[in-house]
Amino acid sequence: MTTTMSQQEYSLQRSALEYDRLRAQARTWESAAETVLDRVRPRPGGSALDAGCGPGETMRLLARRVGPHGTVTGIDVDAALGAVAERSLHAEGYPQVRFVAADLSVDEPVPGGPYDVVYARLLLFHLPQRVAVLARLWDAVAPGGALVVQEYDLGAIDLVPPLPSVEEVRRVICETFLALGCDIRAGFHLSQLFGEAGIGAPDGTDVAGRIEPLATGQRILSATFSSVLPAALAHGVTGEAEADATLAALARDADRLPDASLFWPLMLSAWKRKEVSAGGPSPR
């Protein structure tokens, strides 16, 4: 299964700058990922899946937990990025990691399952078929294994004191994602999505937030704005002149008010362990 999505079906660009942004974003939320992995406790020697693995930052965390005798599979629609992630992790000393290029929105079983842990971050956010994809991820969980999902709620983005430049960046990002069929409050909807996918109520949930000075936060805002800009222009959310003016105003505001408090999106998590049926196979 090696299908790929077109650029129109994915909200963000595929470029070296975007890949750097994804790595920085993943590192920002590393502690939130560690928190939920602590709750489900991937076992040494077990198998783990990172669904929508991107640049492979969470694959590294999973590899450390399953150890050299375990396996970690990363699946992503971006074959080039996944191949780079696999090579990098092998060079770092994680030979138990492998990458599979696949489109998880296709109505087919998840490759390579079942897994002891299935992890997905910021995957459902982008997919109109989010309930069907979530159900397939659950099907890929081995009896006794766990599903872990982390998703954004963009409704929390804010700044104190408020500034028109940040509000315009937030507007363009949110309206563009909505125009592309994304769920900008996917994290808030996780419990509902679990129910609709036939998984049942999560065993646990977690909410992680982040506040940082505008001086540093404006870099991720600018990078995300620039990544969604082609889609924003195509859908009439903004214009080229307006976008240039917005980025310039944001840079000026960051210089003028470097200590303004920028509230990131919330990262919400939900996890569920699959029961072992009577007479069924034991956890692997």
TrEMBL record:
GO terms for biological process: methylation. Residues 49-145 form the Methyltransferase domain. Pfam families: Methyltransf_25. Signal peptide: none annotated. One of its GO terms (molecular function) is methyltransferase activity. SUPFAM superfamilies: S-adenosyl-L-methionine-dependent methyltransferases. CDD domains: AdoMet_MTases (cd02440). This is SAM-dependent methyltransferase. The keyword Isomerase does not apply. The keyword Flavoprotein does not apply. PANTHER family: TRANS-ACONITATE 2-METHYLTRANSFERASE-RELATED. Keywords: Methyltransferase, Transferase.
